[in-house]
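Hi L., both proteins are below.
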Amino acid sequence: MFFGPTIFLIIILLIPVMIIIGMYNNFVTLRNRIDNAWSQIDVQLKRRYDLIPNLIETVKGYATHEKELFEKVTQARAQAINAAGVTEQAQAENALTGALKSLFAVAEAYPDLKANQNFIMLQEELSGTEGKIAYARQFYNDTVMKFNTMIQRFPGNIVASMFGFTARTYFGAEESSREPVKVQF
């Protein structure tokens, strides 16, 4: 079979176009996965926010002297609900996690509370939700890493700049969240 010079030239010109189309589609796929992962984090965070008031009310019945701690958890919850953007959300969530750790640490001082079925159930639900949040964060960060790597590598950086794809922010933990929880009685 014989190809004329025109057909050969068309094939040579189509190869870069096909590469650009393929890269563009990969960027779109990863961007949508990042948005989906963020939505999964948001769903789990909403579940976490809904559990916290019930947990506080249960603990209040036993630990009436921990008013300052309840206010701290409530305030951290409100800040987390109102946080916008990945960085601010991550900071607010880390503060809320620290406040919840303090709440559970204080609960250790009240044996009747630790044996309360409602408290145990809420603690287990919150623990399960924390696991789901951790998984969703990991998936989000893994997808952001793939997306950012593709944007930074050649020739992806050229295609990304042509279509306005920019690097995404990781959902990170603050250094302070890695410190042990301080419990004061």
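That was the first. Here is the second:
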Amino acid sequence: MISCAKAVQQLWEYLDGTSTQADRVLIEEHLKRCRRCCGELEFAHELRAFLVDAAHEDLPEDVLRRLNRTVEELDP
């Protein structure tokens, strides 16, 4: 069984589906036996879903205007 540190280190790749098949098997075996890492997985899954949802929301017009003004001030 891999360590908790190794499982947590590879959690995002696991959630993104970019981990290798061998790593997926190791992580899934670890998650079957480790409640702590299951909690980490649940948190990471929820955070990822929140970030994906937030990325698709339009910015309010005033925030977009201020952001554009800030970019113009930075770009000489």
